[in-house]
Amino acid sequence: SLYVSEYFSQSAQKLSFYSWYGNAKLFHFHVPEDTVLLRWLLQASRGKGPECTSMEITVHFRHGAPPVINPLGTRFPANATVRPSYNISITLSSAVQNTTFVNVTTPAAGDWFIAAHLPEAAGRIEVKGFSTPCPYMFQADMFVLRLTDMPVLEPGVPMPHTVVSPAKPLHVKVFVPKHASGMRFQLSSCVTSEQRACNVRVLLGSITLPQSFQRSLTCTGSLNCSLALDSPPWEKWLQIMVESLGTANASVSLEMLASFTVCRPGSTSSFLNFISLNQSQAGARPGAAGSAAPAPGEAPRNASGQRSSCLQSQPVVREDLDVVSVRYRLLNGPSVPVNSLSPTLLLLSLNTGMDSGGSLVVNLLLNKTSASPANATVVACVSAASPVLSLNATQNCSTAFSQGYPLSVSTSSGEAMLIVLYPQTDDWFLSLQLLCPRGQGDCSSAEAKVTVFAYLTPCFNDCGPYGQCSLLRRHGYLYAGCSCKAGWGGWSCTDDTKAQTVGAQNLATLLLTLSNLMFLPAIAVAVHRYYLVEASVYTYTMFFSTFYHACDQPGVAVMCIMDYDTLQYCDFLGSVVSIWVTILCMARVKKMLKYVLFVLGTLLIAMSLQLDRRGVWNMMGPCLFALVIMVTAWVHHGAKRRHCYPSSWKRWVFYLLPGITLAFIAISVYAFMETNENYYYTHSIWHVLVACSVAFLLPPRDKHKKPWAWSQKLTCRYQICQNDREELYAVT
């Protein structure tokens, strides 16, 4: 046999600490057909700085769809099917780099996914630029070894073969036809080169992760052995590997035979239904209605054919709505008839390669008036690759190489729902059959009607009221995940273990919004001292900070007066400009120069915030530059007056030192103490401290300006107007 090796690589990704599925870095590979060996090369590395410590990286594997993971141990939504993912841990301790190999023999062809992430996030809010996080990098490469001329085992035709040695197993494949209800594999005429009874092991199927249903058959000391399989995967190549368990020098001669039992589906007249569907949508044409109607006597023949067939296939139309959003419509209506003689089958196609990043939802609703006998039960199975055709014999929903998901409805429980998270890329089948209780007599004529709703959605229930459904992308592959808020967690944000109460949400909103009212004293001081431009800036900051935090809340206590992004930008702009104008006001430069710096600095700050809104230098840069201007101006004033500036010790003790202290405490709280849990009160403290520091730091008014005297000014203006009128009257 001719083996060909292939190598696939993807660029490395920077890992993140885990708080939701978007933090996991996804790698998407495609394993070609006839692959006999798959080897993953996993390379993890970290930086060399002192901030880099020992770290454990978790890597998840899955075939057909992204792995469903739960590192935080949260609850999944009700009716969701969850099977633990296959994962390994890679530890980065003293070594800067770690290389790990993972081997998979006879892997299943198709899509394979790898997800890697760091441990749970600490929840601290880090200001960009204050600290340098350690970079942890991860890269996955794939090596495959495949056969270019794998022998094909034809159904019903015996094929002689020889296993040369235990080190060189024999690989063959057989194609499973559509509507195959069973498969029988038989091994005969098995002898060694020493004319002894053979000792071989046969592996049928491919390995899939996280669960593998590969079937094994060991033939020891017998000339013939066989294995029967129910519901093999339809329209797929099935790999068969035969390996010798004998001595190294002995070859094994054998003969293989594969036979299938094919199920004849019942007549559904789907073509006529398709014509009627088009006519109902586009309008019936003259003379077309007669061609779509069944001929006399055709309905009884169809009914008798359905009774004698092994399954009843219902036509289903796949309707693509959006990205990872599909709706399935039944041509015969939402209700399907279900009997006890043969299962009713619905095909849910999810084989485009872009459907595995959402959630498949199947909802069954029993029409209780149609159920006969009254205490009958409709059992259903949702399975991939092949349907379950023996629901009356077994209810565990298992096929030859997979495990399905069971459902049931009855008169006592008339509704059932199933949620399949990240369904694997394949043809999915919904099988339904009526089961009558024992001792109820003949059940062959019984029938029930079940309404079926099936659809694919990016996020189940759109992540609920406390979550946001985000569409994620890895190269050209799209998948969805829920980002939860207000303490809610879980796959669909349904876990309320750590959820905030409505009272706590209202308290957080009130603290973050009303704390901005502490700018009112600063505004009053600025107006009293004739700093009207500064007072306008503080008013702008107070207004937009209040309504930005009212819109930024994660729970139900939310109010947005305009677009969220606009509110955030105006809040950040007002905060930085407030610091800028306050420090320049303290510098006591000439008015013309001060206002030029006000406008020029505001324009530059607006530009820098547009480039990087959360960068620390957007705040620190204007602050440092304004401090340089202030210190230069103070040195100039001190040298000119030949004494320290400001000269009053009361100014230093009662205003400057308290204001500077409050400002340093505010910066420390903002940069080092904020976390996701304490954000609502630590950030409120930041608001209060900054507003109070501004009130302390504003300089006194100029000496030549008198204090506000509204009564005198109003009286003066009235007197001037009175004199003007008298003058005009005298002239005329």
From TrEMBL:
Residues 303-313 have a biased composition (Polar residues). Its main location: membrane. Residues 285-300 have a biased composition (Low complexity). Residues 285-313 are annotated as: Disordered. It is found in: Cell membrane. It is a multi-pass membrane protein. The keyword Cell membrane applies. Disulfide bonds join 459-469, 484-493. Keywords: Cell membrane, Disulfide bond, EGF-like domain, Membrane, Transmembrane, Transmembrane helix. GO terms for cellular component: plasma membrane. Coiled coil: none annotated. The chain crosses the membrane at residues 592-611, 617-636, 652-673, 679-698. It comes from the Eukaryota. Residues 455-494 form the EGF-like domain. Belongs to the TMEM8 family. This is TMM8A factor. It comes from Struthidea cinerea. The gene is Tmem8a.
